[in-house]
Amino acid sequence: MKFEVKLPLFEGPFDLLLFFIQRDELDIYDIPISQITDDFLDYIKHLEKMNVEVASEFILVASTLMRIKAKMLLPRPVLDEEGNEIDPREELVRHLLEYKRYKSVIAELVQLESNRLDREKRGNLAKEIRALSEVSNVEAELQNLDLFRILKVYKKVLQRYEAEQNKVEHKVVQYPYTISGQKTHILDALDKTPKMAFTEVMAERPEKIAVIFNFLAILELLQMQLVQITIGEGFNNFWIEKTQTVAAD
User: Fold this and answer.
1) How far is Cα 207 from Cα 159, in angstroms, rounded to an integer?
2) Which residues of 137-167 are buried (b: 16+ CB within 10 A; e: fewer)?
3) Going by C-beta distance under 8 Å and a sequence separation of 6 or more, which residues neighbour residue 180?
4) 62 CB-side CA count, 13 A
5) Looking at CB atoms within 10 Å, which of 12, 15, 89, 166 has the fewest?
6) Are 243 and 226 in contact (CB under 8 A)?
7) How far apart are CA 147 and CA 18, in angstroms?
8) How confident is the model at residue 6 (pLDDT cuts 50, 70, 90)?
9) Calpha distance 192→245 (Å, rounded)
10) CA 25 centroid distance within chain
11) How far apart are CA 77 and CA 85, in angstroms?
12) pLDDT tens-digit profile of 44-64?
């Protein structure tokens, strides 16, 4: 398994080598291999002291630099097929030049990507207008219209109408009665008539909601001991009158 390790400031060994070359203003075609090898190894040792894991690419380049340094120290030069001396640094220089070229291209691509992301995307207006015109093409729709489609639309309209007609509506009605108001009304009536039959009270407002409010008002007056009831003749009939204390007051 290969792990990509991004070290501080440098993304790879060639990035580090280019840094040394630019820092010391070295000629990339005539690299002082001994100096740059020492700088590279010092950097790796510094990372190891900081307990930073060194990527395998750095170790490989470090061994390559040491091999080139050893070849340049040998008294016997390496010759090619034509008898010309082979510079051990040639392959390293080629890789550095290639990396430098790719790095400059990547920088330009990153800038182009950033500029492209800042732009607002624009659709194909002609295609969109054509699609909208096709959707709202009334003449084409009328040409494809037949009796079956008309009946289908008519059925949907009827179903929608029936749903609207049968829709459940909840109405909130504010009744003109309150328990406190009916208590006051009953006490005022007893001031005029000391004794009243329950049927007389209910006969004033015979609607159901009024009967309920009057009945609840009578119950509260009984609880407050402001009225008393006397059982009268007939089924469910009784008389209402003020208590003796309230009447005396």
Assistant:
1) 38
2) eeeeeeeeeeeeeeeeeeeeeeeeeeeeeee
3) 217
4) 15
5) 166
6) yes
7) 81
8) very low
9) 17
10) 53
11) 6
12) 787 776 655 666 777 777 787
Residues 9-58 have pLDDT tens digits of 556 777 788 888 888 787 877 778 888 888 888 887 877 766 556 667 77
Q: Report how far Cα 249 is from the mean position of its chain's Cα atoms.
A: 72
175: nearest Cα among 211, 204, 125: 211
Read off the pTM: 0.35
Structure confidence at residue 1 (pLDDT): 40
| Per-residue pLDDT reduced to its tens digit, 194-239 | 888 888 888 888 788 888 888 888 889 888 888 888 876 665 677 8
In this structure, the chain runs to a length of 249
Q: How would DSSP label each residue in the chain? A: -------SS-SSHHHHHHHHHHHTT--TTS--HHHHHHHHHHHHHHHHHTTPPPPHHHHHHHHHHHHHHHHHHSSS--B-TTSPBPPTTHHHHHHHHHHHHHHHHHHHHHHHHHHHHTSPP---HHHHHHHHHHHT-HHHHHHT--HHHHHHHHHHHHHHHHHHHT---------S--HHHHHHHHHHHHHHSSEEEHHHHHHHS-SHHHHHHHHHHHHHHHHTTSEEEEE-SSTT-EEEEE-HHHHH-
Q: Residue 160: its pLDDT value, please? A: 87
Non-local CB neighbours of 154 within 8 Å, separated by 6+ positions = none
Q: Give the residues across from 229 on adjacent strands.
A: 240
- CB contact at 8 A, 96 and 90: no
